Automatic annotation (TrEMBL):
<keyword id="KW-0732">Signal</keyword>
<keyword id="KW-1003">Cell membrane</keyword>
<dbReference type="Pfam" id="PF08263">
    <property type="entry name" value="LRRNT_2"/>
</dbReference>
<dbReference type="GO" id="GO:0005886">
    <property type="term" value="C:plasma membrane"/>
</dbReference>
<keyword id="KW-1133">Transmembrane helix</keyword>
<dbReference type="InterPro" id="IPR013210">
    <property type="entry name" value="LRR_N_plant-typ"/>
</dbReference>
<dbReference type="InterPro" id="IPR032675">
    <property type="entry name" value="LRR_dom_sf"/>
</dbReference>
<feature type="domain" description="Leucine-rich repeat-containing N-terminal plant-type">
    <location>
        <begin position="37"/>
        <end position="75"/>
    </location>
</feature>
<keyword id="KW-0675">Receptor</keyword>
<dbReference type="InterPro" id="IPR003591">
    <property type="entry name" value="Leu-rich_rpt_typical-subtyp"/>
</dbReference>
<dbReference type="InterPro" id="IPR001611">
    <property type="entry name" value="Leu-rich_rpt"/>
</dbReference>
<comment type="similarity">
    <text>Belongs to the RLP family.</text>
</comment>
<keyword id="KW-0433">Leucine-rich repeat</keyword>
<keyword id="KW-0325">Glycoprotein</keyword>
<keyword id="KW-0472">Membrane</keyword>
<dbReference type="Pfam" id="PF13855">
    <property type="entry name" value="LRR_8"/>
</dbReference>
<keyword id="KW-0812">Transmembrane</keyword>
Length: 649
């Protein structure tokens, strides 16, 4: 018999292929189907809810194997349902006690559904699902108290009750969950009521706890809260935002929180020197939010040793960047941050009593791979000039230095910020020209340089932005944004400058414009008909220029236009009838022009008008009651200095 290695290998491959085919063909028989009573329990659970979008369409009695249903996972050996994952589905209705038949359930996720228990509360019977390891009821419409029966779930490792409308006391029975690693109770204010806790010592009975979220729970009576959390050395994330905590200057003899990397204490009124806070020696912290805590005085030098720090928030805004906090901060920052090589977000806007921008930038990280992405220092009474070293922060995506007293020119090094998306330098005392390099910043979306003393021309290339604000400067020359490629531009404000020449016809290519104001310049010529291509425009102001010729926009798609101001120009001709299509108009001003003809009957179609100014023109004829009877919302009407005859109805 031929026993050559080649033939043996071929025989081995053939046998493997045959065995693989056998496994695939019989896989369905090796996988047990679900238990009948558990299938019935799931169907009873579904019967109590409204599945508007058919997300549980597979849950049918005709589909016998519930292990194949959406959101269901069964044990591969026993066939018991061990996982029910229905989070973020549009399910409305009541949570049925039939779930008690799922005795082997380990994982229950109903987050952000519209399911509820009796009287809108968490069903008490959930505390009897003794095998649960994971329970997520976050973002649901629950109200009332958190049931203490949840403390019976002795195997629970993950509990998320955040984003609900709970009231009453936090049950200390949660301290019985000795295997818990994740606990988020962060609530939502409702009718100015919220959960409260006067004793959190039960937390020390959770030796494995890595995440603790108690934001928006009233902890005002707990003065020793840092001592309690310091007894949970496993903690990695701690969220205590807006808990009415009274101070953070407690003295800790020994710090146990060596694993802590996330700490959110925002929106608590501490009102003591920032340097006296207990957490500055925790060098493992990566995320620190102290927004709205009324801390003051100099930052401690220990901040410079927090080499793991990635994000620091200390402004009047929380870390979402949009929501103003309730209390402000007033501190000073003279700490050397050169060694914080991992720092990505530094948000100190509206929180420093004073500072020098030149010195501040000099203290920023100096590392081979600079990771700083967001820097916000607005409203900090900062003086000094912008150093060219800013151009070395090549990963910077967002820079806000607005509302300070910064002087001098914008450094040419800004042209090196190739990742920059957001630049806000408004309301300073900046002089000189806008660097030509701005036109090469291909990622730039938002540019705000208004209310400075800038001169020179508008650089090319800004048409790639979505928002450009350059108002209240001394800019001159023509409009040249590179507007032939401005299809993303939504906001453009060039008002109160000395811009000359005509409005370029290519501005009509900016079809996504929402807000356009070129007022108070030295523009000449006519209004390009292409401006009538805008279908998203809500506000258009070309006032106080030297525009001439009749209004020939010719638009019929102005149904969302709310504000139109062409006043104080040299526009001639009649008021165009297409204005009657602009049914959302609230403010219309054509005053101080050379407009002729009768009062247009189409104005009567503009029932949303609150302000109408046609004064200082050459209009004539009789104004009848029919012209004005539909304008019931008018609170400002100026028809003066025209040649109308008769009486105003």
């Amino acid at each position: 018999m031929d026993r050559s290695p080649d033939k043996f290998f071929l025989l081995l491959m053939a046998a493997a292929a045959t065995w693989s085919f056998f496994l695939v063909a019989n896989a369905g028989r090796l996988q047990p189907s679900c238990i009948g009573r558990e299938r019935d329990a799931l169907l009873a659970f579904k019967q109590g809810m409204n599945d508007t979008y058919g997300e549980l369409g597979s849950w049918q009695r005709g589909h016998q194997d519930c292990c194949q249903w959406a959101g269901i996972t069964c044990n591969n050996v026993t066939g018991h349902v061990v996982k029910l994952e229905l989070g973020e589905r549009y399910l409305v209705g009541q949570i049925s006690p039939s779930l008690l038949s799922l005795e082997h359930l380990e994982y229950l996720d109903l987050n952000w559904t519209r399911l509820y228990g009796p009287d809108g509360r968490v069903p008490v019977f959930l505390g009897s699902l003794k095998n649960l390891r994971h329970l997520d009821l976050s973002g649901m419409p629950f109200s009332g108290r958190v049931p203490p029966q949840l403390g019976n779930l002795s195997k629970l490792e993950y509990l998320d009750l955040s984003g609900n409308y709970f009231t009453g006391a936090v049950p200390p029975q949660l301290g019985n969950l000795s295997k818990l690693e994740y606990l988020d109770l962060s609530a939502i204010y409702f009718n100015n009521t919220r959960m409260v806790s006067t004793d959190i010592s039960w937390l020390t009975r959770l030796p494995l706890l890595a995440l603790l979220g108690m934001s928006y729970i009233n902890l005002s009576s707990i003065a020793d809260w840092p001592l309690v959390v310091n007894k949970i050395p496993s903690l990695e994330l701690l969220g205590l935002s807006e808990c009415s905590l009274s101070s953070a200057n407690q003295s800790l003899a020994h710090l146990n929180l060596t694993n802590l990397h996330y700490l959110d204490l925002s929106d608590n009124y501490f009102g003591h020197p920032i340097a006296s806070s207990w957490f500055w020696n925790i060098t493992s912290i990566k995320y620190l939010d102290l927004s709205g805590t009324s801390l003051y005085g100099p930052f401690p030098n220990a901040l410079g040793n927090m080499t793991s720090l990635q994000e620091l928030y200390f402004g009047p805004y929380s870390s979402d960047g949009d929501s103003p906090t309730t209390t402000a901060n007033t501190a000073t920052m003279t700490v050397d941050l050169k060694n914080l090589c991992d720092l990505e977000y530094l948000l100190l806007d509206g929180s420093l009593s004073s500072g020098n921008i030149t010195e501040f930038i000099d203290k920023l990280p100096r590392c081979s791979s600079n990771r700083l992405q967001r820097l916000r220092l607005s409203r900090n009474n900062m003086v000094g000039i912008l150093p060219n070293r800013l151009g070395n922060l090549t990963n910077l995506a967002s820079l806000d230095l607005s509302h300070n007293n910064i002087t001098g020119a914008i450094p040419l090094g800004f042209g090196n910020l190739s990742c920059l998306e957001y630049l806000h330098l408004s309301n300073n005392l900046l002089t000189g020209a806008i660097p030509l390099g701005f036109g090469n910043l291909s990622c730039l979306e938002y540019l705000h340089l208004s209310n400075n003393l800038l001169t020179g021309a508008i650089p090319l290339g800004l048409g790639n932005c979505t928002a450009v604000y350059l108002s209240n400067n001394n800019l001159s020359g023509p409009i040249q944004l590179g507007i032939e490629t401005c299809t993303r531009l939504q906001y453009l404000d060039l008002s109160y400058n000395s811009i000359t020449g005509p409005i370029p016809p290519m501005l009509g290519n900016c079809t996504e414009l929402y807000y356009l104001t070129l007022s108070n310049n030295l523009l000449t010529g006519d209004i390009p008909p292409g401006l009538g291509n805008y279908t998203s425009l809500q506000s258009l102001s070309l006032s106080s220029n030297h525009l001439t010729e009749p209004i020939l926009l010719g638009t019929t798609s102005c149904t969302i236009l709310e504000d139109l101001d062409l006043s104080d120009n040299n526009i001639a001709g009649v008021i165009p009838p297409w204005l009657g299509n602009c049914t959302s108009l609230r403010h219309l001003s054509l005053s101080k022009n050379h407009i002729t003809g009768h009062f247009p009957s189409k104005i009567s179609l503009l029932g949303n008008l609150t302000g109408l100014d046609l004064g200082y023109n050459n209009l004539d004829g009789v104004i009848t009651e029919e012209h004005l009877v539909t304008l019931k919302n008018i609170n400002h009407l100026d028809l003066s200095h025209n040649s109308f005859s008769g009486h105003l109805p």
